[in-house]
Amino acid sequence: MLTVRGSVGVLPLMLGLSEEYNKSKNVSCEIDVSAVGGSSALEMIASNKADLAMTEESAGELPAGASGVVFAYEAVAIVINPSCGLTDLSSEQIRGIFSGESDEWADFGGKGKITLVVPEQDNGFRKYFEETFSLRAPISGIMQSLIPAGAVVSSDPEGEVTKTEGAIGICSAAALIHAENTVSVNGVALSEQTLKDGSYGAGRAILLVMGKEPRDDVQSFYDFCLSDKARKLTKSIGFMPVE
């Protein structure tokens, strides 16, 4: 059995790559996938309780002897209808807009009425966005979203924003179609380079980590995760693969 552990946010990627590996290799390799948290996944690599880990780069240092590589990025693209008249927003403005401080773009330097467009509440990418911009807070002892209930919920936020005057929304950078409708964050535009150098404040690197002296089946799956086929799947799941 091949054991893969990682953070909760990367679970869809771990599952997708595991399933595709078995299909593409035409093998029946039993892969045990579980989300235990990034730091715990690295600890399991160190103690030989896991063969591979997929986790955010910020989860901690690599265990001694382990090998790791950034193989994907998760990033929030802030998309806006051109009618709003804005090309850049600060983190504070983004938090204010999505927490419903005002429904007037004039309060943030734009024009018209604000319409918020977001994915459904239990969407993992939305939760990452809310955590990044401090849009979650304890209410009656339970962490809840600060995005107003009146926001438009859509499975295609970018498409909804494009056709709705005054709209702003979020989508995965990997799913972005019209890059010209994105705004920069704190003066930094979204690109693979700004994700790599860390200057874009709404993205994070995803590491693929393998323990020392891996078995042949572990090395085979590791190599597959870095292949062209895996990159295409990674993008379809909502992450930006490293080219």
Structural class of the helix and strand makeup? alpha/beta
CATH fold-level label of the largest domain: D-Maltodextrin-Binding Protein, domain 2
The CATH class designation of the largest domain is Alpha Beta
CATH superfamily of the largest domain: Periplasmic binding protein-like II
Largest sheet: number of strands, sense, barrel closure: 9 strands, mixed
Number of helices: 8
The unreliable regions are none
| 3D shape | elongated
Overview of the structural elements:
- This protein is α/β, with parallel strands linked by helices and 243 residues long.
- The protein folds into 2 domains: 2-66 and 211-241, D-Maltodextrin-Binding Protein, domain 2; 74-196, D-Maltodextrin-Binding Protein, domain 2.
- It is 30% helix and 26% strand.
- It has 8 helices and 13 strands.
- The strands form 3 sheets. Strands 1, 2, 3, 4, 6, 9, 10, 12 and 13 form a 9-stranded mixed sheet that branches. A two-stranded parallel sheet has the order 5-11.
- Helix 1 (11-25) packs antiparallel against helix 8.
- The longest helix is centred in the N-terminal third of the chain and has 15 residues, at 11-25.
- The model has no long low-confidence stretch (mean pLDDT 91).
Write the SSE topology.
Blueprint: E1 2-6, H1 11-25, E2 31-35, H2 38-46, E3 52-56, E4 67-80, E5 88-89, H3 91-98, E6 115-118, H4 124-132, E7 136-139, E8 142-145, E9 152-153, H5 157-163, E10 167-172, E11 184-185, H6 192-196, E12 203-210, H7 216-225, H8 228-237, E13 240-241
Parallel strand pairs: 1-2, 1-3, 5-11, 6-9, 6-10
Antiparallel strand pairs: 3-12, 4-10, 4-12, 4-13, 7-8
Helix pairs in contact: 1-8
